[in-house]
Amino acid sequence: MGTLTGLERTSTGARIGVDIGGTFTDLVLADGRGAVFHRKVASTPAAPEEAVLEGVAAIIADARLTPGEVTEVVHGTTVGSNTLLQKVGAPTGLITTKGFRDVLEIGRLRTPSMFDLQWEKPVPLVARRHRKEVSERIAADGTILVPLDEAAVLEAAQELVDAGIFSFAVCFLNSYRNPAHEQRAATLIAEHFPQVRVTSSISVLPEAKEYERTSTTVVNAYVRPVLEAYLTRLERGLADAGIDAPLLVCNSNGALASSGTAREKPVFFISSGRAAGVVGGSRLGAALDIKDLVVFDMGGTTASASLVQNGELTRVSEYEFRAGISTPSRFIKAGGYMMSVPTVDVAEVGSGAGSIAYVDQGGLMRVGPVSAGADPGPACYGIGGSRPTVTDANLLLGYLPAQLAGGSRALSVEAARTAIARDLADPFGLTPEDAACGVRDVVNANMARAIRAVTVERGVDPRDFTLVAIGGSGPVHAADIARLLSMPRVLVPASPGVFTAMGMLAGDVERYFIRPFAVKLADFQPAEAETAFATLEADARAALASEDVAEHLISVTREVDMRFRGQEMSLSVPYLADRDALHAAFKAAYEAIYSYSSSDTIEVVSLRVIGRGLRPGKIDFRAAQARGEGSSEPESIRKVYYGAEQGHIDTPVYVRTRCPARIVGPAVIEGADSTVVVPPGATAEADAHANLLITLA
Fold first, then answer.
1. What secondary structure letter does DSSP report for 402?
2. Where is the Acetophenone carboxylase-like C-terminal domain (predicted)?
């Protein structure tokens, strides 16, 4: 679909980033000499690897390379999240300590909203009849109180296999203190039932809190066979295409890991992909010396927002996956499936360009979370979809061109008008244009809600931040959303529609290791912690070395999980080998989140190490694209509807690669991967690297 630079080069190896969305699969290729190519292909939800393989072949041809010149494929996948959302995971069973069969049902004894009488508790991923108890007991200090009943383990496993279960989760009480029983049970099951996949809790989360550990283990077991099968098909397809290169997968924390790690521990990859856009946004901000950002990503199915404050990504150690709005809030729990894994702090709503607009039973307009996706798609695609979507509304209003994805997808204005008139305008007695404006207003309010979740609800004023608009539809809505939040600036990267795939090429490899270390802070012994950290660091370095990371590119970070005595939640703070310094660091972190502190006793809960393998040849956002020669004359003029007050306005349309350095709105700027809308009263300025900074009146 074209290069982002015009450099003549001799390739020294190419890296490909791939991000699967609900509507399009995005690809970026960096050839090792500074040239960057990008391409969009329609996603294939029934077999996601087909779109990836099609796109990889096409982008290699665009770059005039051979498959053998590809040295690395970096991948973000929605397979894990879609598996949970659609409840299509593997039949899963749980083997646990006698008396703890209902931990998943009990959860945290909370509801997301205290007064919501319509709330329904998420159905556990493991049916109660498939949760088996066995006799064993380990005390809180790790001593064995009741030996493991091995016959009971085999009997439970046989019952599950007879019931058609082929993925097991094993989670015993206090196994994080003494893993002997869990290890033995996993070994027995593997020996007697080799066809079964076994996930033990100590392999994914060796720390306290029974519900969190059980839930995380069950999610891993539920998703594992599905993600394994997908990665197997993808790697086979890449090999058949002549690509003999490692496949790395983006995890929920915005970092990378080998496909082997993703197969074994998919719970770390449930939010694979969306975090990569945040990583890319932070790197772009650093390149432009903009430290405070809200990264807003709107694709075909969902929209998400994340905070970058003072140049640092906001991360959390646990989150819940759920339909509707999904946030890793520290205050709202029990709305979904808990996973205690490191993740970028992202709020997500089911409002994307493909989200279906409809009138609910109460006579109100709703948008999402159901999406038309890539198949059958919005009504304007003309490939089977008949219900109006956000894309149909934007097309009817004049914001979108007649073709998307570089001309690969033709759009029909009349089909969009027909769907909107039938399902929305006629029921409300509106014109199709005003109904389409209503769709935009609703979806913009939904997305502003996600941004408030990571700013206002965190005690941060969004007016002090720049909104970074990425995704195929982010730049179409960003200016209106910024105005809703009184944010003064919108930054649109050079290639916003494929920016998440580009962000993957800016990531590093990471692995996480944790060890329980329960002690009062007053009794904390730095010498003992140093010994434990040394073991964890050795494990981290060995794991990264197994993923072909050179020793001189490995770095490790030490953290300590702490809490006030009697509290359930803990906070991670950087490790300092001094009790007073740790005390001050924890109090500061606690006050920053909760706006108050306590004089209660502080406890150390666990020690953790993050091993990071730096990637050579990461994409440079300052040099990824040079702005071409601008033209003051627009490519065309078309009528765009800006609402009932302003009506239709003749709006100049520019091509992104040839637009002038400064544009006064209204204007529409079209690119191969996305469209940028500059509303009336706003100005857009292009920098030397083709990024657009929109300033709102």
1. S
2. 529-690
Secondary structure of 645-676 as H, E, C letters: CCCEEEEEEEEHHHCCCEEECCEEEECCCCEE
Q: Are 402 and 394 in contact (CB under 8 A)?
A: no
Average confidence (pLDDT) over 557-572: 88
525 sits in the region (left: phi over 0; alpha: psi -120 to 50; else beta) called beta
DSSP 381: G
Taking each continuous run of H as one helix and of E as one strand, the counts in the chain are 17, 37
Q: Residue 127: CA atoms inside 13 Å, Cβ hemisphere, count?
A: 10
Length of the chain counted residue by residue: 697
Q: Could you give the CA distance from residue 146 to residue 153 in angstroms, rounded to a whole number?
A: 14
In contact, 97 and 65? CB cutoff 8 Å: no
Give the model's pLDDT for residue 486: 94
Lowest mean pLDDT among 33-42, 289-298, 602-611: 33-42
- Give one DSSP letter per residue of 225-271, joined into a string: HHHHHHHHHHHHHHHHTT----EEEE-TTS-EEEHHHHHH-GGGGTT
Is residue 218 within 8 Å of 237, Cβ to Cβ? no
Q: Compute the distance between CA of residue 390 and CA of residue 300 in angstroms, rounded to an integer.
A: 9
Contact 610, 557 (CB under 8 A): yes
**Predicted local distance difference test score (pLDDT) of residue 7:** 31
pLDDT tens per residue, range 20-67? 877 788 999 988 777 889 898 888 888 899 999 999 999 999 999 999
Question: DSSP secondary structure string, 457-491?
Answer: GGT--GGGSEEEEESSSHHHHHHHHHHHTT--EEE
The stretch 88-103 carries a mean pLDDT of 95
Q: What percent of the chain has pLDDT over 70?
A: 93
Q: Hey, is 568 helix, strand or coil?
A: coil
Cα 213 to Cα 115, 217, 452: the distances in Å are: 28, 6, 30
H or E stretch at 452? helix 432-454
229: Cα within 13 Å, side-chain hemisphere: 13
Nearest-5° Cα angle at 661, 658 to 666: 85
Position 476 scores a pLDDT of: 95
In this prediction, residue 121 carries a pLDDT of: 79
Specify whether the backbone of 94 is left (phi greater than 0), alpha (psi in -120 to 50) or beta. beta
**Averaged pLDDT of the chain:** 87
3-state secondary structure 288-353: HCCCCEEEEEECCCCEEEEEEECCEECEECCEEECCCCECCCCCCCCCCEEECCCEECEEEECCCC
Cβ-contact 379, 415 below 8 angstroms? yes
Structure pTM? Answer: 0.84
Give the distance from CA 286 to its chain's centroid: 21
pLDDT of 326 over the 80 cut: no
Question: Cα dist. 621→232, 288, 310, 341 in Å?
Answer: 32, 9, 18, 29
643: left (phi over 0), alpha (psi -120 to 50) or beta: left
Sign of CA dihedral 402, 407, 410, 416: negative
23-32 burial, b if ≥16 CB within 10 A, otherwise e? Answer: bbbbbbbbbb
Cβ pair 357, 424 in contact under 8 A = yes
Query: Per-residue pLDDT tens for 340-351?
Result: 888 888 887 878
153-167 burial, b for 16+ CB within 10 Å, e for fewer? bbebbeebbeeebeb
* Alpha carbons 556 and 536: distance in angstroms, whole number: 10
